[in-house]
Amino acid sequence: MPLILGIDPGSRITGYGLVRVEGNRSAYVASGEVRVEGETLAQKLHHIFTALSAVIETHAPDEAAVEQVFMHRNPDSALKLGQARGAAICALAAHGLPVAEYTPQEIKRAVVGGGRAVKEQVQHMVKALLNLSEISSADAADALAVALCHGHTGQTLARMGAVTVRGRRGGRWR
Q1: Do the beta carbons of residue 67 and residue 102 sit within 8 Å?
Q2: How far is residue 23 from each of residues 2, 11, 38, 65, 161, measured CA to CA in Å?
Q3: Number of structural domains in the chain
Q4: Does residue 25 sit in helix, strand or coil?
Q5: CATH number assigned to the domain comprising residue 30
Q6: Of 141, 143, 68, which is closest to residue 104 (Cα–Cα)?
Q7: DSSP string, 65-111
Q8: Which residues are catalytic?
Q9: 102-127 pLDDT, tens digit each
Q10: Per-residue pLDDT averaged across 73-94, rounded?
Q11: Domain range spanning residue 66?
Q12: Hey, which family's this protein in (predicted)?
């Protein structure tokens, strides 16, 4: 019954969500957001790292999953998002967690059934799948969707006879 930590990285707000997966059932454990603080880039990235480290130390997840960066219209925004994502991955790696990565389309497909779903559809399905009446924020809902995606992907691979889920590289499972 693995405990999965999902991360929705952001340069201003990073969402996190924890779900426990057993068979085809998923149970909500916790979720929230890290509101990035600091004056300099280094301080902001350090805040993401330390805040997520505290979440990891509190909940002791078994696995983690992070949403991949997609190209924004503004390259500067994509760069900032990538840096926030890097700080999150460093926190996960520092605690020895295996980390899987998923594109926004893969997450939507796993949770909603279609890769072009809008945020409201994802939030609705996260609430339905986890039997929640409310979720604290859109960022927390997105992070829970990442965790659910990883749980669903792992279950599918297990049914197909895969022994472990070790992550993706170049669009293929290794």
Answers
A1: yes
A2: 10, 34, 41, 18, 14
A3: 1
A4: strand
A5: 3.30.420.10
A6: 68
A7: EEEPP---SSHHHHHHHHHHHHHHHHHHHHTT--EEEE-HHHHHHHH
A8: 8, 67, 139
A9: 999 999 999 998 878 888 999 999 99
A10: 91
A11: 3-173
A12: Belongs to the RuvC family.
